[in-house]
Design brief:
single chain, 9-stranded mixed beta sheet, alpha/beta, 17 helices, two-stranded antiparallel ribbon
Length: 687
């Protein structure tokens, strides 16, 4: 029978017979079961068959009491929680109220659940143990009962009521003995009431061989052939618990606990517990309804009563319809809520890659600083020898800073790319989940008439707005090199010196030209006066007449003297011109030499200043490099924390977008289902 129909039928009976002395209590139990969001697997077996030991093996720790005397007094429900950090115990009291506290040790649980515990057990209705169990979920719980053959009246009544409520039974028997007559009677009752039954043989580690267990299984199957096909699994609780606590795979394999866990896991995953629960409730309802109808048949009289019945039937059908559509609505909302963890699941994997890359970046940067510091030490040694090339050093420094900058820029780009990749992947995943959501709605089993193709167009029209990533990466500073101002001045002084030296050469050239001109003029004048004339010999006549003759009488020096005087005049003029030229050029040369000397001194002073400043610059640069290296080591973790915070903000933004998107879908979905429900209610007709 459909759950909503069954729920409506039970609801009508409760409304009519809730105060009935005979049917009221039974109907209240049925109503609680049909309205409950959970199903249960009751663990049952004869006294001392090892129920608590098996449960401890499934839990992986010795939490429940395993005494050889009857110990379980209060119903213990085992519920799933995400991890052991969230493990806790919740007490529900008979008078109402509850109390929750962390589970610190086993004694804390024993004193609330066993006959050997405190007097508080007399005031408890149930104890809930929250523990990570892989074959349970929020709708399926495991229940430890006092036992099928409990000698205590209250414990026996507790077991009976729980078996009535449970959708499945985990029935334990001693694997060495097989099933007894009492076991057959109980199993027959469970099958008749529509329960799903798992048969578990305990203590198989006490058997001599697997062949002995196989013979027990064959005998059990033969004796149960006329009932049903049960899952029969042999387990050693002792080996399983020890294997889990010691992480011993060999013991776990020998215990065969995994086979039981797999069967229970399949039962949970298939959702069969819902159907088993419905079958169990339906069986009890049919039996109770038959008894009620016998009474109603005697009381049902008159047309007015029949009209009232038609009205109730219409109301019942309307209520069923509303429940059916409410079931669809709740199912859809549940599907949407299960999509909540997608952001963290995708984001955590990418964040791990970014932080791992951050460690590699720190290694590269520190290696770069170490290499440049070593290079700087070598250059400081060369500075003492006068062989340092400050231009080359500046270029190396700028190259080092650019290299570090590029490392961080590439890392920043990698982070940005990871962010974009995350957003793109996330957006695609959201779209895929939207389609899965619609397909799940189309394939769900229900009795309602909904045109999902109309909702398809509504869902596709709900856009998931794109978002650009804008990470703040300003912490990665780009360093700029300082310009050497003295270099420009030195170039100017060298140009000035070159000019002075050029002027000096021009003065020398002019002097040579003027001297040459004076000498040429002198030569020209000397050429005009010719060579120096020789003295003319003087003669005088002596004798007379025949004996008259000329005899030498000295020399005439007038012409040579005249030439000599002229030569002296020319030479004096030449010497004067030459002296004048030399004096003029000497003054110019002296002035120019002073200019050259000043320029050379300024250049020497500048070179000394540059050398001093370069030494200071080199020392300061070495200090800066060391400081920067220390800063990188000290602040890199802060940068990683900043990135974590930026990534967390990104995840929060994505979660807000995702939540808003899911809320929009939910609002449209609820409206669509409600509109479909109103159409269906208008079509209801009662004959």
């Amino acid at each position: 029978m459909n759950k909503n129909r069954l729920q409506a039928d039970i609801g009508l009976l409760v409304e009519k017979y809730s105060d009935d002395l005979f049917f009221g209590d039974e109907l209240e139990i049925l109503s609680e079961r049909i309205h409950s969001l959970e199903s249960s697997i009751a663990v049952i077996g004869q006294f001392s068959v090892g129920k608590s030991a098996l449960l401890n093996a499934l839990l992986g720790e010795e939490i429940l009491s395993t005494r050889r005397i009857e110990s379980t007094k209060v119903l213990t429900r085992i519920r799933n929680c995400p991890s052991r950090k969230e493990a806790k115990v919740a007490l529900t009291y008979l008078e109402g109220g509850s109390r929750t506290f962390p589970i610190d040790d086993i004694d804390d649980l024993e004193k609330y659940t066993t006959f050997q515990g405190d007097e508080v057990t007399d005031t408890l209705a149930a104890v809930d143990l929250y523990w990570p169990v892989r074959f349970l979920n929020e709708e399926l719980v495991l229940v430890d009962t006092p036992g099928a053959n409990s000698l205590t009246k209250s414990a026996f009544e507790t077991t009976r009521m729980q078996l009535k409520k449970s959708s499945a039974i985990l029935y334990l028997f001693n694997g060495q003995k097989g099933l007894e007559t009492t076991d057959h009677e109980l199993l027959n009752e469970f099958v008749s009431n529509g329960k799903k039954v798992f048969l578990v043989g305990t203590h198989i580690d006490r058997m001599n061989s697997s062949h002995e267990w196989n013979e027990v299984v064959k005998e059990v199957q033969f004796n149960l052939d006329d009932m049903s096909n049960f899952d029969i699994i042999g387990v050693s609780s002792t080996l399983a618990l020890k294997g889990k606590m010691d992480a011993d795979d060999a013991l776990l394999s020998e215990s065969n606990i995994a086979s039981l866990e797999d069967v229970l896991g399949e039962y949970m995953a298939s959702g069969e517990y819902h159907r088993a629960e419905l079958r169990s409730i339906e069986s009890d309802y049919i039996q109770l309804d038959a008894e009620i109808k016998e009474v109603e048949a005697e009381q049902f009289k008159g047309e007015q009563e029949r009209e009232d019945e038609r009205t109730r039937r219409h109301e019942r059908l309307t209520a069923i319809t509303e429940l059916d559509y409410a079931d669809v609505e709740n199912y859809g909302k549940t599907l949407l809520r299960r999509r909540g963890n997608i952001v963290r699941e995708l984001g955590s994997r990418l964040e791990e890659n970014i932080l791992r890359e951050g460690k590699d970046i720190l290694h590269k940067v520190t290696a770069s600083y170490s290499s440049f510091s070593q290079q700087l030490n070598e250059k400081m040694e060369n500075l003492a020898k006068g062989t340092i090339d400050i231009e080359s050093l500046k270029n190396d420094y700028i190259g080092h800073l650019n290299h570090v900058e590029q490392i961080y820029i590439r890392w920043g780009k990698s982070i940005e790319d990871s962010g974009y990749h995350f957003i793109e992947t996330f957006d695609l995943e959201v779209r895929r989940d939207d389609k899965k959501f619609l397909n799940a709605l189309k394939t769900m089993e229900n009795d309602v008439e909904i045109k999902w193709e109309n909702f398809d167009s509504i869902l596709m029209s709900i856009s998931f707005e794109p978002l650009r990533l804008d990470l703040d990466l300003s912490d990665f500073d780009v360093y700029e090199s300082q310009v050497d101002k003295e270099e420009s001045r030195r170039k100017k002084l060298k140009t000035k010196l070159s000019t002075v030296e050029g002027e000096q050469k021009q003065i020398a050239k002019t002097l040579d030209e003027q001297v040459s001109e004076v000498e040429n003029k002198k030569k020209s004048v000397l050429s005009d006066i010719g060579e120096r004339p020789k003295p003319e010999r003087q003669y005088r006549e002596t004798g007379i007449l025949f004996w008259k003759k000329s005899v030498p009488d000295g020399y005439d020096y007038s012409r040579p003297n005249l030439w000599d005087e002229r030569y002296r005049e020319i030479t004096a003029i030449y010497e004067q011109d030459l002296a004048r030229i030399n004096e003029v050029n000497r003054d110019l040369s002296m002035k120019n030499e002073r200019k050259r000397t000043r320029a050379l001194k300024e250049i020497d002073d500048l070179e000394e200043a540059i050398h001093s400043k370069r030494h200071a610059f080199l020392s300061a640069l070495y200090s800066i490099i060391n400081d920067q290296s220390k800063i990188v080591l000290e602040t890199h973790s802060e940068r990683l924390n900043d990135i974590r915070q930026e990534w967390e903000r990104l995840l929060i933004v994505q979660e807000e977008r995702h939540d808003a998107h899911l809320q929009t879908i939910e609002d449209q979905f609820v409206k669509f289902v409600n509109d479909s429900k109103q159409v269906a209610i208008k079509k209801i007709r009662v004959l």
